[in-house]
Amino acid sequence: MTQKNEDSPAGFAFALSAYIYWGALPIYMKLLAPYGPAEVIAHRIVWSIPFAFLVLWATGRTADLRAAFRNPRMLMMAAITASLIGVNWGFYVWSITSGNALEAALGYYINPLFSIFLASVLLREKLSRTQWAAIGLAACGVAVLTIDAGRLPVAALGLTLTWGFYAYFKKSLPIGPNQAFTLEVLLLLPFGLLYIAYLVQSGQSHFMTGSMRDTWLLIGAGPISAIPLILYANGAKRLRLSTIGILQYISPTLIFLVAVFVFGEPFGTARIVAFPLIWASLVLYTFAMVRQARAARR
Question: What is this structure's pTM?
Answer without folding.
Answer: 0.83
